[in-house]
Amino acid sequence: MQGIVVIKCGGSTMEQLPGSFFQTIARLQKMGKQLVIVHGGGPAINSMLERLAISSVFVDGLRVTCEDTLEVVEMVLCGQINKWLVRRLTEHGARAWGVSGMDGSMLTAVRTEKPLGWVGEVKAVDAAIPRTILGQGYVPVIAPLAAGIDGAERYNVNADVSAGAIAAALRAESLIMVTDVPGILKPEADGTKALVSKTDEAEIGRMISEGMITGGMIPKVQAALDALSAGVAQVVICRGTAEDLLKVCQGEPAGTAIVAAAAEKNQAAR
Questions:
Q1: Whether this model's pTM surpasses 0.85
Q2: Would you say 143 and 82 are in contact if contact means Cβ atoms under 8 Å apart?
Q3: What digits encode the pLDDT tens for the residues 199-253?
Q4: Of 76, 78, 92, whose CA–CA distance to 24 is shortest?
Q5: 171: CB partners within 8 A, 6+ apart
Q6: Which CDD domains match (predicted)?
Q7: How far apart (Å, rounded) are the C-alpha atoms in residues 119 and 121?
Q8: At a CB cut-off of 8 Å and minimum separation 6, what does 207 contact?
Q9: Can you list the alpha helix ranges (DSSP code H) found in the chain?
Q10: 59 by DSSP, 3-state: which?
């Protein structure tokens, strides 16, 4: 079995994903690549909340989830978005199996200490479930909801955090975070923004403290660092183009690669 690649698709990119994205997933699957998709669904959730006159509140890029919001999150993520992705993948020749983190208690969480309502912090991942789906020749497509420790509660978990935890549990060779920007962008003196092709924990800390990384990118890079510390070889933030997917899966540079500081030092010493 080839190394596993976890791909996180952000909700803001969902409608922008071209047919070539799904075709590339199908192509890589047929080549024997083990792929897992974890998805968000923020814009679709916002749209449904607006239709139902439920206000949306965010803290540090994370959604505050009350009981009513949780009902909508589950409906949109597990129903609308998850099955749409499965249909699109199947349409383009991939074999996909849609599940949520609650199924089989794949993701187990406790309520986060932040004042975010029913938002969970992942405590355990049952890696046997996605591995079983992979073993049957399917791409697991996972909605980021988690079961409580006793199974009686459910939690909304940030998709970046879920993808990082799943990638770590699967000991993935790469975690690809597909977003609507080409990667981490750094302001230049002339007012333009340049792509950061490679970075590590220390530089990310500086960029956050200096306000270069803000909003929804903060949980993204924090999830990336957590995944790296748990053994994932690299995390790449990039657009969901066929070119970027192929490059990352073939070990070529694309977007912003986040690597462990030790790995960076080892490469420099060679």
A1: yes
A2: yes
A3: 988 899 888 888 888 877 888 888 888 889 888 888 999 987 889 899 988 888 8
A4: 92
A5: 4, 231, 232
A6: AAK_NAGK-like
A7: 7
A8: 184, 186, 199, 213
A9: 19-30, 42-51, 67-74, 82-91, 128-135, 159-169, 201-209, 217-229, 242-249, 261-269
A10: strand
Q: In whole angstroms, what is the distance from residue 3 CA to residue 34 CA?
A: 6
Residue 19 is encoded by which pair of tokens? 């047919």
CATH class of the region 4-269 = alpha beta
Map out the domains of the chain as residue ranges: 4-269
Is residue 108 within 8 Å of 145, Cβ to Cβ? no
Is 104 marked within a binding site? no
Does 158 carry a binding-site annotation?
Answer: no
State yes or no: 239 annotated in a binding site.
no
SS3 assignment, position 151: coil
In the block, which residue shows the tokens 């994903």?
A: 17
Q: How many CB atoms lie within 10 A of CB 79?
A: 13
DSSP symbol at 170: T
Which residues share a beta bridge with 140? 97
